[in-house]
Write a structure and sequence with these properties.
5 helices, 27% helix, alpha+beta, five-stranded mixed beta sheet, 24% strand, four-stranded antiparallel beta sheet
Length: 180
């Protein structure tokens, strides 16, 4: 999406990898203009936010062969999550006290632990989980979102620049189709 946005503005897009924890706080420190990492607009994440560009439910990745025996958090004894992520907060809230939470630097690192048997699940969002399951044979998704929990809005944290915020919001809103 950001590539198409940059192209529509005739801008050159440069990506830099940053640690996830507090990414939304570091926008505008002259390192980057937009934080784009599937960031949920959660309480306590104070930033200038774009319009939401996706909605996500909490999910976990599991090995396809183990999906019949893992139905919910009660069946997970070891889970990998990125510290500070919505998946981390959700796991803390719903996992059994006897379960272990392993912090990883990235979803990719968590998938490595899943594939080598170090964990039984990797916490993430439904969009990311669906993509990983489609592109990586042997992985499956499990919906662990509770019916009473709100669906998370995914947005970009944007540098305090009203013109940039307006442009990206117009782009995002232009992608959405009206529903009747």
């Amino acid at each position: 999406m950001l590539s198409k946005f940059a192209e529509s503005e005739d801008w050159t897009l440069n990506f830099t990898l940053q640690p996830f924890e507090g990414l939304w706080d570091r926008v505008g420190d002259d390192a980057f203009d937009i934080a784009a990492a599937g960031i949920s607009k959660l309480k306590g994440r104070d930033s200038m936010w774009s319009e939401p560009h996706a909605e996500v439910r909490r999910s976990v990745l599991v090995l396809d062969r183990n999906k019949p025996s893992i139905q919910d958090y009660a069946d997970i004894h070891r889970i990998a999550v990125v510290p500070g992520s919505a998946a981390h907060a959700h796991a803390l809230k719903h996992l059994q006290h006897r379960s272990a939470i392993l912090g990883v630097n990235s979803l990719e690192e968590g998938i490595g632990l899943l594939l080598d048997g170090s964990v039984e699940a990797v916490g993430t969002g439904s969009v990311s989980a669906a993509h990983q399951a489609r592109t990586r044979p042997g992985l499956a998704t499990l919906d662990v979102h509770r019916p009473n929990e709100r669906v998370e809005e995914i947005a970009f944290a944007v540098r305090n620049n009203p013109l940039l915020l307006h442009k990206i919001n117009q782009f995002i809103l232009g992608l959405k189709t009206p529903q009747i």
